[in-house]
Amino acid sequence: MEPGIFLRIIMVGTGLWILLLTVLSLARRRLTEAFCLAWGIIAICFIIAGIVLNPNWWNLYISFEGLLLACLIGFCLIYGVYFVSSNLADVIRKNTELAMQVTLLNTENTELRQELMKIKEAIKDREEEE
């Protein structure tokens, strides 16, 4: 098989794999919507590039083994970036949850302060009456 044709197959396959991984990650809530949109655009670009581009002239410059090595390095890079974006989405989600909890605690703290002030005023009024 010629490296140019093999590269087209790999690009379309990689695009489909990224698209499937993105949809599953969105369903499992591992990625945020913004990250899923970015990964979806990247996947579609891979698929379109694999269909439209015609890298037949690459046969003169790269061997089949070199193409396999380049594809392996590319897969490792894509997986690394996906892993980082997945962890970043998890941190963003936890940060949002933490901000909500802090807001609830601040609201509860304000209510308790107001209640404490009412109790102090009631005690002060009773002392003045006596």
Identify the overall geometry: rod-shaped
Low-confidence stretches: none
Structural classification: mainly alpha
Distance between the termini: 101 Å
The major sheet is characterized as: none
Round the mean pLDDT to the nearest integer and report it. 88
Radius of gyration: 29 Å
Instruction: Give me the count of strands.
Output: 0
Number of helices: 3
What percentage of residues falls in helices of 4 or more residues? Answer: over 70%
Q: What is the chain-wise order of helices and strands?
A: HHH
Q: What share of the residues does DSSP label as strand, in percent? A: under 5%
Task: Name the features.
130 residues, mainly alpha, 3 helices, 86% helix, 0% strand, rod-shaped
Task: Describe the 3D structure.
The protein is mainly α and 130 residues long. The chain has one domain. Helices cover 86% and strands 0% of the residues. The longest helix is centred in the C-terminal third of the chain and has 66 residues. The N and C termini lie far apart (101 Å).
Write a concise synopsis of the structure shown.
The chain is mainly alpha-helical. It is built from 3 helices and no strands.
What order do the helices and strands come in, and which of them pair?
Blueprint: H1 3-28, H2 33-52, H3 64-129
Helix pairs in contact: 1-2, 1-3
